[in-house]
Amino acid sequence: MAITRRAFLQQTITVSAALPFCFPERPVLLTGFEPFVGSQYNPTKDVVEAVATGETVDPLILPVAFRTAADQVIAYMERQKPALVLSLGLKGDPFITIEQRGRNIMDGWAADNTGYRARREPIFPSAPEYVPSPFDAPALAQLLEQAGLPVRLSDNAGTFVCNDLVYRVNHYIQEHDLPTPFVFFHIPWTTNYTEEHHGRGIPFFRYYQRVPLEEVVAAVRLTIAALT
To answer: Which is nearest to 74 in space by CA: 164, 157, 163, 173?
Structure first.
């Protein structure tokens, strides 16, 4: 009898739960973001907390602030020389979106959490328009797709703080010729958030399609195992 998608995903989730025992000696940095633009919640924090339970995965919840978020990641990289940096941002569609590059622009559709609103400013005035992420994004997407996870590739990380983080970290890696893979996922809202319990704390929540938290956690664990 053919296996159902739900059963296949459950097998993936079960296997991925054991993967932290395979993590490398060098640390892995796993980041999420604090809530932003009027929301009281951010599911990236839930994913970070679910995965970063072992000694070799360092959790970091970043401020939603241009430059500052990237500065914190780069400072960690300089201190710890991680095997992998995996960062999570939030997007409203029901996919784990792998961002393949950052764009040299800051254009805030809203103010960041410091109150600063960028207006079509370059991140670095004399730098290239795009800097690619230093890993094989199509191969990673194929791996996650084969595990039954809802994944897609993207060449547009937006113009807000997520893109600022992607561009600055990619630029730092390229400038210093580092071997460190840096992966950025835009993740959807997860099904542990419900209209009944969280709707008032999440603007426009009823319009978001969600995926189970354990699927996003599985994608993160599989990625760490594959790239370290």
So the answer is: 173
- pLDDT tens for each residue of 63-94: 999 999 999 999 999 999 999 999 999 998 99
| Assigned domain for 171 exists | yes
> How far is residue 120's CA from residue 48's CA, in Å, rounded to a whole number?
31
- pLDDT band for position 219 (cuts 50, 70, 90): very high
**Residue 162 appears among annotated catalytic residues:** yes
How far is Cα 46 from Cα 161, in angstroms, rounded to an integer? 19
Please say if 22 is a catalytic residue.
no
In a domain, 7, yes or no: no
94: containing domain: 24-227
Residue 176 is assigned to a structural domain of this protein: yes
What is the average pLDDT value for the chain, to the nearest integer? 91
* pLDDT tens for each residue of 93-141: 999 999 999 999 999 989 999 999 999 999 999 999 999 999 999 999 9
Q: Among the options 49, 145, 162, 176, which is catalytic?
A: 162
Q: Which of 171, 186, 214, 215 is catalytic?
A: 186
CATH of the domain at 162: 3.40.630.20
Total number of domains constituting the chain = 1
Helix axes 213-227, 5-16, angle to 10 degrees: 50
Instruction: Please indicate, yes or no, if residue 16 is contained in any of the structural domains.
Output: no
